[in-house]
Amino acid sequence: EGPMEGVLVSVKKAGSTQTITVVTDQQGRYRFPDSRLEAGEYALAVRAIGFDLESAPAVSLVAQNTTTADLKLRKTRDLASQLTNAEWLASFPGSDEEKASVRGCAHCHTLELVTRSRHDAHGFVAVIERMSGYPPLAFPLMPQRT
């Protein structure tokens, strides 16, 4: 494909919860602000619809040195895994009113999880009944039941 503009390139330092993301320019180049990165090991990731990284590279940053990483992308084998919740919801049949209950699932889960579930209709009813007892602000570390 050659250089790609508009690819989101992210780095996350080992042990950190913070991810820093930049966008590639017309020549496919990207640069992270020096002030945002400190020395250490970083994992790289990209978001480019229809593409995946050939490998998940890691880079080691040394203070006051420039580090480069040429990223190679390949066509994805699983486009569905790149859809946002909004795109999943738009693909579901039914009216907005009929989709309202599914919208609540997206407070905690990706809708991809729902679409790839192995539950049958009976199993889904049990899951929905159980999950409907959790308010929108519940999360795995603080599951609040109503």
Secondary structure elements and pairings:
Elements lengths: L7 E6 L5 E5 L16 E8 L3 E3 L4 E4 L11 E3 L9 H7 L4 H10 L5 H5 L5 H11 L15
Antiparallel strand pairs: 1-2, 1-3, 3-5, 4-6
Main sheet: which strands, in order across?
2-1-3-5
Q: Indicate how many domains the architecture comprises.
A: 2
The gross shape turns out to be elongated
CATH class of the largest domain: Mainly Beta
Q: Poorly predicted ranges (pLDDT <50, ≥5 residues)?
A: none
Q: Could you name the CATH topology of the largest domain? A: Immunoglobulin-like
Which structural class matches the secondary elements?
alpha+beta
* Binned strand content: 15-25%
What's the alpha carbon Rg, rounded to whole Å?
A: 20 Å
The CATH architecture of the largest domain comes to Sandwich
Number of helices: 4
Record field, number of beta strands: 6
CA-CA gap between termini: 52 Å
Helix content: 10-25%
Question: Can you put this structure into words, describing what you see?
Answer:
A four-stranded antiparallel beta sheet has the order 2-1-3-5, with no helix packed on it. The protein has a two-stranded antiparallel ribbon with strand order 4-6. The chain is built from four helices and six strands; from the N terminus they run ββββββαααα. The chain has helices spanning 85-91, 96-105, 111-115, 121-131; strands at residues 8-13, 19-23, 40-47, 51-53, 58-61, 73-75. It is elongated and about 55 Å long. The longest helix has 11 residues, at 121-131. The protein has two domains: 8-75, Sandwich (Immunoglobulin-like), CATH 2.60.40; 83-131, no CATH class. Strand 1 (8-13) and strand 2 form a beta hairpin. The model has no long low-confidence stretch (mean pLDDT 86). The protein has 146 residues and is of the alpha+beta class.
